[in-house]
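Structure first, sequence second, as always.
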């Protein structure tokens, strides 16, 4: 199996805040999104761009996956953002409101025109009804696109939906994006949880996201990192079961029928067990 990169916790932070940039280097999150968009006022955007690009080349963030979210296509800052960030070469460039395959191809062409290094991927935020309906086309449009990021706040706004426990109004969109990611071999991150004071609600949404199949969750506060890391990592029972399934498979592969704790084991269970252990090992390495 190819290496699995943990993306349990991916934290947005304003690139305009020197304090936030410094603190991020100490947090146990798997990834960072240095934000030039929503979290930055218009007059602060040029300085934030410069700070984010400097951070990307600083080496201060260790093994954390460092990405930069640029302002959206059509805004007065987008072109300058993209040119500067391509030169800086972060782990990925995060682009808001991507709603078509053509948009992906245009972004990739622009990245190549600005000589973005090969290691700089594209992460597409899908956050509109149109994006949900075209999610597979978006995800399949380029190999450079590696991650879909749910923008659940904007999706709820455009649907005229309410934010409610369990997210029933959003489940169709979440499921369409998940199907697209899995059909095309891309990773996918769940949207943010807005109430940083509501720990129980946040943990419940993390659990729901893990059960649905998301790779991790985007976050808006450092206090959410530990909860997301726990929710999206295999627990001790899952690791034990994965090891037991693989041992049973190896022991019984010549018998034709393999069971583990009374359950039939087939190749699909073996593949799931291997992925669980790969994720567990990757999480263990990142924590050491």
């Amino acid at each position: 199996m190819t290496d699995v990169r943990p993306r349990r916790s991916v934290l947005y932070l304003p690139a305009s805040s020197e304090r936030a940039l410094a603190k991020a280097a100490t947090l146990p999150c798997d990834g960072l999104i240095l934000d030039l968009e929503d979290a930055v006022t218009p007059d602060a955007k040029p300085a934030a761009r410069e700070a984010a690009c400097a951070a990307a080349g600083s080496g201060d963030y260790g093994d954390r996956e460092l990405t930069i979210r640029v302002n959206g296509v059509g805004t007065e800052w987008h072109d300058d953002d993209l040119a500067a960030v391509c030169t800086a070469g972060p782990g990925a460039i995060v682009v808001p409101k991507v709603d078509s395959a053509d948009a992906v191809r245009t972004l990739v062409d622009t990245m190549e025109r600005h000589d973005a290094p090969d290691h700089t991927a594209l992460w597409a935020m899908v956050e509109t009804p149109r994006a949900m309906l075209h999610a597979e086309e978006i995800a399949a449009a380029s190999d450079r696109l590696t991650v879909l990021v749910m923008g659940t706040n904007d999706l709820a706004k455009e649907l005229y939906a309410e934010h409610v426990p369990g997210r029933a109004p959003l489940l169709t969109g979440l499921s369409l994006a998940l199907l697209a990611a899995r059909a095309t071999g891309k990773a996918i991150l769940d949207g943010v949880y807005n109430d940083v004071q509501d720990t129980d609600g946040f943990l419940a949404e993390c659990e729901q996201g893990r059960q649905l199949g998301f790779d991790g969750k985007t976050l808006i506060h450092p206090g959410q990192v530990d909860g997301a890391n726990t929710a999206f990592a295999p627990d001790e029972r899952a690791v034990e079961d994965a090891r037991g399934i693989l041992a049973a498979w190896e022991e019984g592969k010549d018998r034709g029928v393999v069971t583990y704790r009374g359950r039939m084991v087939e190749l699909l269970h073996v593949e799931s067990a291997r992925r669980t252990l790969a994720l567990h090992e990757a999480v263990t390495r990142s924590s050491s």
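Margin note: The first strand starts at residue 9 and ends at 14.
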